[in-house]
Amino acid sequence: MFSTLLDYFTGLKMQDASSLKLKKFWFILSITVNLGFLSVFKYYNFFAESFSEAFAHLGLHLDPWTLKVILPVGISFYTFHGLSYVIDIYKDRIKAERNFTDYAVFVSFFPLLVAGPIERATHLLPQIKRSRAFDYSKAVDGLRQILWGLFKKVIIADNCAEFANQIFNNSAHYPGSTLAFGALFFAFQIYGDFSGYSDIALGTARLFGIELLRNFAFPYFSRDIAEFWRRWHISLSSWFKDYLYIPLGGSKGGNWMRIRNTFIIFIVSGLWHGANWTFIAWGALNALYIMPSIVMKTNRNNMETVAQGKDLPTLKELFQMFITFNLTVFAWIFFRADSISHATTYISEILSPSVFEFPVFQGMHNPVIILILIVFFVLIEWQGRENQYAIERFGLRWQKAYRWSFYFLILILLFIFNGKEQQFIYFQF
After folding, report:
1. Whether the bond into 117 is cis, omega within 30 of 0
2. What value does the CA radius of gyration of the chain take, rounded to a whole number of Å?
3. 96-121 pLDDT, tens per residue?
4. Which of 81, 123, 233, 273 is catalytic?
5. Is 273 a catalytic residue?
């Protein structure tokens, strides 16, 4: 509530400022307080403990004071909502919203409050302000997207989580082959978990006549890392591009400027995800991945959907997707690991001869069933990759009985394979 009041009030003050100096004062105040809250709640303990460890290596013992607080729900998301709003007002892209209720709904619209997508005032506020009538076709479409989101979350993500958690938490007891499967299961867990949440959020909003920003566009079918980042967590990637990368100079200053700015946004993106060196390493690794395409200016080579208008990709496209997916899975190890040392130990075991051993899934359910479900999931996603979500148009030309049979199949699978309930991964961010 304080964050909402702060940005609403400073937005009006900037709009009505009698001089540029006064406008800049209110702008800096809003930015400082917003980032201050985010830094204290989310990053203070991390940096305090990191400084303490650094001094310990020099033989100096520090006993830093740390906060014993719970991270406020959704703080990363609604802080970015507020930041984009005040930046857009300062840059004269939008006018300040004078209706407090409309602005408060923009910041705290419940489907996106705790895990995005990260909305822009230019996109969401006009929809909130105009009157809306119930639209049956939009509601049906919203329910269809919610159903697919539930499939991703409950069947794919939650079941993969059981395997990923068991393997990552006990990685010292498994051969490299099992650890490789653990990384694969986590890749599908985080995709099913986060894109599933986004589908549920977008579908729920559509029931209310609101169209939220798309957050995922089938990223695991990407042919290079640049394409992957255009398709993964789209609202965050575009936020960093518009409010960090371009203000830093973007790509206008030659290769050095592009390299510097790319590393900055990826490291900040990693830090945004959590106060741990593993997230920073994950961000830096993705920056290294994308660097060749940035330097050679090939980062916009694959703008269209893979195998557009075709049933199957070419061998070249298949190879490109295979390499990109494996690079992404490798990076996810840092994202999931408890520490840098855990990640490096995990990776070293995968690269050892034990990767050729038969995988062991001791203490876990039959992984074959989950792998079959993953294959089914990937096939449906592939078939619907040119749409906003996988089953947007799936079966619409079928007879109603067949189409509804497919929907009921999804519902039955939800009841059969509703594994142990797992919290949404992005709730912690």
Report:
1. yes
2. 23
3. 999 999 999 999 999 998 888 999 99
4. 273
5. yes
